[in-house]
TrEMBL record:
Protein topology in the membrane: Multi-pass membrane protein
NCBIfam families found in the cross-reference section: ATPase-IIB_Ca, ATPase_P-type
Compartment annotation: Membrane
E.C. number(s) listed in UniProt: 7.2.2.10
Protein task: Catalyzes the hydrolysis of ATP coupled with the transport of calcium.
This protein's name: Calcium-transporting ATPase
Recorded family membership: Belongs to the cation transport ATPase (P-type) (TC 3.A.3) family. Type IIB subfamily.
Residue ranges of domain Cation-transporting P-type ATPase N-terminal in the record: 117-189
Keyword ATP-binding: yes
Gene Ontology CC: one annotated term: plasma membrane
Record gene name: LOC111295683
Annotated catalysed reactions: Ca(2+)(in) + ATP + H2O = Ca(2+)(out) + ADP + phosphate + H(+)
Listed GO MF terms: ATP binding; ATP hydrolysis activity; calmodulin binding; metal ion binding; P-type calcium transporter activity
Database matches in InterPro entries: ATPase_P-typ_cation-transptr_C, ATPase_P-typ_cation-transptr_N, ATPase_P-typ_cyto_dom_N, ATPase_P-typ_P_site, ATPase_P-typ_TM_dom_sf, ATPase_P-typ_transduc_dom_A_sf, ATPase_P-type_domA, Ca_ATPase_N_dom
Length: 1042
């Protein structure tokens, strides 16, 4: 079976090929209800049509952006504003001076003439009644939403519960059974009279109703979970100024007039115009298809929703929201076609197809055997020519049993159980601070063999404070209890002002007023720590900012590893450049150093060596090190070209920032290593800082290797092959180094790799990895968009939790498959053998439908939603090519099937004698006992399936309330069927001895399970685990370690 599945039902978990998707669709057959079975499967035709529409729309947008600048458009637009523009009455009454359509036209057509005629950004702000400094007044939000619209995109209306009922009724076998039930009622009344003749047919109808109801409820709840998760995936937090205070709001709450702040990696949340900014560069490829970034300036101030900030920073005025934006119209096409199906969903469609074909063959055989025996019996009694309505009813009953066998045999619930399990896992992970963006990520995480993690914020707390500063040959320790006077006196007077200038002028952080009226520092943790240190020195941020005019800013990025700014000094002293960043890089660009008098003097080699030792000393104490430097720019050549100098800087200070390791990270790393997952740190920090933190986290071991990015970059393929297995830390790395490492691990070492990232430049590595993990707090929107999972709390412990849930999903589906295949085999064989030998089936159509519900929907609810346990992280990862139905599973399936068939066969053929049944109702009692025993065998086998290897199957049973609820409801309803619904289900009430016998025979499967688990299974030929290259010993496996 595995070879057949690999050939026809194998797809990549990430970006599967069109051919693979079409191949498995062609291979699927015997689908009872295509509408339900393929509800979570991508519609390739719809997707192709959506792609075509999207390309047409992008081309239109591209034409609008790049071709529409012809003079005619400008003339027409100008004429339209001056002559024809009329303010809508509802807008006028609301107190605004411009309508939504006019605002949308100006920005989308990039119409500078209309923009200027309306008074530029100040004029537009006035017309939408907003202050460019204080922003929107909160009480105006609902009014603005009524006039200008909501920042939400059109979505398909959610499907109601009755739609799921209707979908469940499309099951072909259920339709056939309903027809059979109708015929049975008509024929039954004709032969047996009212109401006795209608009971058999009504029993089938009642069971169908129950199956449809339970199926619809389960599917409807799943759809609600996916809807909530989908909304959360699209939610973006944006920074705005409202009522004079900086605050974070959801993208859905954004209104026209909001003042929005943009920085590298952000998605532009709505159409708008630039208020102010530095070096703002926008990637419009998602909207127009053009890969060339666009520079946004006062001469080209238009920003379009859905585009990405590639460089720089800025502040914008929102002019158009929601479906009035081009992005809104484009988003409608993005949701068409659905998400790619996961590898497990595809594989289980294959399993369902194979079992379905076998079930169909047994169904036809059973019908033929029952019919032939019936005809032979009539012939032997000389009644072959005499036919009555009763005979027709018998044949109809045989047909109903055959159809019901198909209902039981075709495991429609297998692929849907994957969806159920994934939905449950995604919901639980959401509450555990992990947002799963792609379904397949839940599965793949269980196979991860290598995690490449960032340091800052993931392994550390990201709560940074300046701990030490070195300046003028002296190291000063910064302690919270020391006063600002002490710090001022510790730093030489001539250096003090320069230090403050370099902190306050060259910063990506801001001091803003919060809702509580207090000043807060906003920015990245590193920027915040440095600015808070400047404020600790007792100076006013705004006063220093006003001393100079900022001419140009080069924001920090992970390639340059520095931030630079060019300012014009207020005292007519020309221009000055400040830079700060990675200590080695800044030190290399310095040729001078500041002395205690505040004068620059040449930097000697001896001083350079001394400063390098200081940097290394700070780094060995696990401090992040940065250097601050400046350069006075004489003349106008540099300024005129608007370029910031790259070298000949004067060093001011070395700063050491403390960022403690997160609590629980060391234990999480230890758990990963015990689970066969190698953890590698990839950071842009100093190598000594990285090594100190890696040792503290338990990542860097005695035999491990720590190298720098430039060394890794220059390695030959052969050197990489020797180095990567021992590599545990890579410092001073670029995003491209991370991408190269991930590619090598995946392609050369065949590892399943998870990688973390937060910056825009991390997007290629996140895209390349098997699992891309973006940071929810520090991560940019570009990083999140390219990730499979967003770690909402930026914590490594959460990553380990995602791994645990990934393993749980895979194991849970295996448990369910083991349980369902056992029921399939027993139901098929029991009815077939009985039909061959006795000419009747012991289980009726109604009973088989009830068994199908236990096996399908309720079984999936019980087994596919079990939470993970600690034992999962003591076994190796699931291999990329591991056999899904393992030999251990086959051992359990075959063993349990043999036990159940023996028990049920003995009851069928020797039951009356063994149970001492006599009288007219002996056969009815025996058939009820067989049915009852069969159901209890499944109940106890469901408990057995909780653990496929370990003997103690009751461990953690009370942690899964859903499992307990399913067990209790199954037993309760079975009791009702037997004791009270006998008329419909062909059962009779049983005494307590027969109830006890049924339960004990079912419980016997627990003892059989213990015996089976003691039988050793050779796993040598199964691709059970992925080969490791991390130097760790292979993990033990088996019943004791499962």
């Amino acid at each position: 079976m595995e070879d057949y599945l690999r050939k026809n039902f194998a797809v990549e978990h990430k970006r599967p090929s069109e051919d693979a998707l079409r191949r498995w669709r062609c291979a699927v057959s015997l689908v009872k209800n295509p509408r339900r079975r393929f509800r979570m499967v991508a519609d390739l035709a719809k997707r192709a049509e959506a792609d075509r529409k999207r390309r047409i729309l992008q081309e239109k947008i591209r034409v609008a952006l790049y071709v529409q600048k012809a003079a005619l458009n400008f003339i027409d637009a100008g004429k339209r504003v001056q002559d024809n523009y009329k303010l809508p009455e509802d807008v006028r009454q609301a107190g605004f001076g411009i309508g939504a359509d006019e605002l949308a036209f100006i920005v989308q057509s990039h119409d500078m003439k209309s923009f200027e005629d309306h008074g530029g950004v100040e004029g537009l702000a006035k017309k939408v009644s907003v202050s460019l400094t204080d922003g929107v007044v909160p009480t105006d939000v609902s009014l603005r939403q009524n006039i200008y619209g909501y920042n939400q995109f059109a979505e398909k209306p959610a499907r109601s519960f009755w739609m799921f009922v209707w979908e469940a009724l499309h099951d072909l076998t259920l339709i056939i059974l309903m027809v059979c039930a109708a015929v049975s009622v008509v024929v039954g009344i004709a032969t047996e009279g009212w109401p006795t003749g209608m009971y058999d047919g009504l029993g089938i109808v009642f069971c169908i109703f129950l199956v449809v109801l339970v199926t619809a409820i389960s599917d409807y709840k799943q759809s609600l979970q996916f809807k909530d998760l989908d909304k959360e995936k699209k939610n973006i937090v944006v920074q705005v100024t409202r009522d004079g205070c900086r605050q974070k709001i959801s993208i859905y709450d954004l209104v026209v007039g909001d003042i929005v702040y943009l920085s590298i990696g952000d998605q532009v949340p709505a159409d708008g115009v630039l208020i102010s900014g530095y070096s703002l560069s926008i990637d419009e490829s998602s909207l127009s298809g053009e890969s060339e970034p666009v520079n946004i300036t006062q001469q080209r101030p238009f920003l379009l929703s859905g585009t990405k900030v590639q460089d720089g920073s800025g502040k914008m005025l929102v002019t158009t929201v929601g479906m009035r934006t081009e992005w809104g119209r484009l988003m409608v096409t993005l949701s068409e076609g659905g998400e790619d199906e996961t590898p497990l969903q595809v594989k289980l469609n294959g399993v369902a197809t194979v079992i379905g074909k076998i079930g169909l063959a047994f169904s036809v055989l059973t019908f033929l055997v029952l019919t032939i025996r019936f005809l032979v019996t009539k012939a032997l009694h000389g009644e072959i020519t005499n036919w009555s309505v009763s005979d027709a009813l018998n044949l109809l009953n045989f047909f109903a049993i055959a159809v019901t066998i198909i209902v039981v045999a075709v495991p429609e619930g297998l692929p849907l159980a994957v969806t159920l399990s994934l939905a449950f896992a995604m919901k639980k992970l959401m509450s555990d601070k992990a947002l799963v963006r792609h379904l397949s990520a839940c599965e793949t995480m269980g196979s991860v063999t290598s995690i490449c993690t960032d340091k800052t914020g993931t392994l550390t707390t990201n709560h940074m404070v300046v701990n030490k500063i070195w300046t003028c040959g002296r190291t000063i320790k910064i302690e919270g209890n020391k006063s600002e006077d002490f710090l001022r006196s510790s730093i030489a007077g001539g250096v003090f002002n320069l230090l403050l200038q370099s902190i306050f002028q060259n910063t990506g952080a801001e001091v803003v007023k919060g809702k509580d009226g207090k000043n807060n520092v906003l920015g990245s943790p590193t920027e915040t720590a440095i600015l808070e240190f400047g404020l600790l020195l007792g100076n006013d941020f705004e006063i220093h900012r006003k001393e100079s005019e900022i001419l140009k800013v080069e924001p920090f990025n992970s390639v340059k590893k520095k931030m630079s700014v060019l300012v014009s000094l207020s005292n007519g002293g020309g221009h000055r450049a400040f830079c700060k960043g990675a200590s080695e890089i800044i030190l290399k660009s310095c040729s001078k150093i500041i002395n205690a008098d505040g004068k620059a003097e040449p930097l000697s080699e001896e001083q350079r060596k001394c400063i390098t030792d200081v940097i290394n000393g700070f780094a060995c104490e696990a401090l992040r090190t940065l250097c601050l430097a400046f350069k006075d720019v004489r003349g106008t050549s540099n300024v005129d070209s608007n370029s910031i100098p790259e070298d000949n800087y004067t060093l001011i200070a070395v700063i050491g920032i403390k960022d403690p390791v997160r609590p629980g990270v060391r234990e999480a790393v230890k758990t990963c290593l015990a689970a066969g997952v190698t953890v590698r740190m990839v950071t842009g920090d100093n190598i000594n800082t990285a090594k100190a933190i890696a040792r503290e986290c338990g990542i860097l071991t005695n035999g491990g290797l720590a190298i720098e990015g430039p060394d890794f970059r220059d390695m030959s393929p052969q050197q990489m092959e020797e180095t990567i297995p021992k590599l545990q830390v890579m410092a001073r790395s670029l995003p491209l180094d991370k991408h190269k490492l991930v590619t090598y691990l995946r392609k050369e070492f065949k590892e399943v790799v998870a990688v973390t990232g937060d910056g825009t430049n991390d997007a290629p590595a996140l895209h390349e990895a098997d699992i891309g993990l973006a940071m929810g707090i520090a991560g940019t929107e570009v990083a999140k968009e390219n990730a499979d999972v967003v770690i909402m709390d930026d914590n490594f412990t959460t990553i380990q939790n995602v791994d645990r849930w990934g393993r749980a999903v895979y194991i849970n589906i295996q448990k369910f498959v083991q349980f369902q295949l056992t029921v399939n085999i027993v139901a098929l064989m029991l009815n077939f053998i009985s039909a061959c030998i006795s000419g009747s089936a012991p289980l009726t159509a109604v009973q088989l439908l009830w068994v199908n519900m236990i096996m399908d929907t309720l079984g999936a609810l019980a087994l596919a939603t079990e939470p993970p346990h600690e034992g999962l992280m003591k076994r190796p990862p699931i291999g990329r090519d591991a056999a899904f139905i393992t030999r251990i599973m086959w051992r359990n399936i075959i063993g349990q099937s043999i036990y159940q068939l023996i028990v049920l066969a003995i009851l069928k053929f020797e039951g009356k004698r063994l149970l001492q049944l006599s009288g007219s109702d002996a056969t009815a009692i025996l058939n009820t006992v067989i049915f009852n025993t069969f159901v209890f065998c499944q109940v106890f086998n469901e408990i057995n399936s909780r653990d496929m290897e370990k003997i103690n199957v009751f461990r953690g049973i009370f942690d899964s309330w859903l499992f307990i609820m399913v067990m209790v409801s199954t037993v309760a309803f079975q009791s009702i069927i037997v004791e009270f619904l006998g008329t419909f289900a062909n059962t009779v009430p049983l005494n307590w001895e027969l109830w006890l016998a049924s339960i004990l025979l079912g419980a016997g499967s627990l003892i059989v399970s213990v015996i089976l688990k003691c039988i050793p299974v050779d796993k040598s030929k199964e691709a059970a685990t992925t080969k490791h290259h991390d130097g760790y010993e292979p993990l033990p496996s088996g019943p004791d370690m499962a």
